[in-house]
Amino acid sequence: MNEGPESRCRAAARRARERRRRRTAAPAAVAALLAGAALVLPGGTALRGTAAALAGHSGGHPSGTATLAFAGDVHFTGRTAGRLTAVPALGPLSARLSAADFAMVNLESSITTRGTPQAKEYHFRTTPAALAALRASGVDAVTMANNHAVDYGPAGLADTLAAQRASPIPVLGIGPDAAAAYRPYTTTAGGVRLAVLAASQVEDITNAEFAAGPRTPGIASALDRPALLAAVRVARARADVVVVYLHWGVEGESCPVPAQTSLAADLVAAGATVVVGTHAHVMLGSGMLGPAYVAYGFGNFLWYGTSPYPYSDETGVTTVTVTKAGRVAGAAFAPAVVGGDGVPRAASGAAAARITARHELLRRCARLAPPPTADAR
Questions:
Q1: Mind listing the pLDDT tens digit for each residue in 165-183?
Q2: pLDDT tens per residue, range 111-120
Q3: 108: in domain
Q4: Pick from 323, 326, 239: which is nearest to 51 by CA?
Q5: 222 near 176, Cβ under 8 Å?
Q6: Residue 130 confidence (pLDDT)
Q7: Three-class SS of residue 277?
Q8: Which of 101, 136, 90 is nearest to 300 (CA)?
Q9: What pLDDT score does 29 carry?
Q10: Domain of 254: which CATH number?
Q11: Which segments in the chain show pLDDT lower than 70?
Q12: Does residue 377 fall inside a structural domain?
């Protein structure tokens, strides 16, 4: 499929920028609010300012609903390195992300040109331009709580944190200490107060050596379940809707493993409204777990190369509609295919029917209920 005229893409990017300017909670305002009191998490981690930051938001949208769009893993390396200068970087699906009140993806890379490759098979990195490119593609926040955020060691991590500080969009799940890494991004969209957190459950060198501590930088670790759950509870006390974006699961496995299902249940019990994630490089099931929407895996999105796993080119954008009452009003899935250039494009015809059918089938082994239907806009 063709991407369509660039003028249409630029118009979508302009609409996304205008929508962000109208938001009631700009990142700078949130940062100013994060100087409040501290909550002490298990292990002595201080989660500073969360309650104060969340308390500063109030809904004003007459509809009292918001649409949240999610997609999976994004790279700007290999065959997608040139997307940094493309308009928009994420291709035609940027329009779907821009149409939502809030959109989020996983940036599967370190942001650095320095550092030493760590003792692992794959290493990914990009430049700070990736964050501006994602913003222009309709993305409102990214998670870097993943197993490639510190691929280039302490020097690479220092550069990534510098890029985070200068980023035009919030970069979640990583920080100069655990308080910052677990800290939610808060905003009001459509009159709904949102709190968004990110963490990684992947047991690898990143979580082993670069999990953020009380005074050390790194990623937010979902392996420290008490710390993550405490952050969710604090967020839920002040927000209408809590979103947790995780890096979890087993590569190539299209059904969730017990570590995922147990964490999802705990997060929902702690107050999460939406629990989503990536890592497996294939799609996993999604649906309702009690009152919450859970998507165990979005798969690849802007993908740097080939994958050895079946169905790894099947992807899409998931849009969840939430209400000011903290309820999931609906969810919709827009199927897509990752092309030979690594860019996802909307599927149509038989391909769309096949991907959608498989997406529905994956809900069975995830043991989730069908979500309410909603227009993905």
A1: 999 999 999 999 999 999 9
A2: 999 999 999 9
A3: yes
A4: 239
A5: no
A6: 98
A7: strand
A8: 90
A9: 32
A10: 3.60.21.10
A11: 1-62, 374-377
A12: no
For residue 57, the SS3 value is coil
262 is a domain residue: yes
**Helix/strand/coil for 266:** helix
Bond prior to 217 in cis (omega within 30° of 0) = no
Q: Is 121 exposed, middle or buried (0-12, 13-18, 19+ CB in 10 A)?
A: exposed
Q: Is residue 376 part of a domain?
A: no
CA distance 48 to 178: 10
Q: Tell me how far CA of residue 206 lies from CA of 110, 177, 212, 216, 242, in angstroms.
A: 11, 15, 10, 13, 25
Q: CA-CA distance, 89 to 130, in Å (whole number)? A: 9
Residues forming beta bridges with residue 321, ordered by sequence position: 67, 330
Antiparallel, parallel or unpaired: β 292-295 and 274-278: parallel
Q: What is the pLDDT of residue 170?
A: 98
Query: How many domains would you assign to the chain?
Result: 1
Tokens of 318: 């998931």
Domain that holds residue 347: 6-366
Q: What is the mean pLDDT of the chain?
A: 87
* pTM metric for this prediction: 0.86
> Which pair of structure tokens corresponds to residue 95?
């329009």
Task: Answer yes or no: are the C-beta atoms of 305 and 79 closer than 8 Å.
Answer: yes
Return all residues near 235 (Cβ < 8 A) that are at least 6 apart: 50, 54, 184, 186, 195, 197, 242, 271
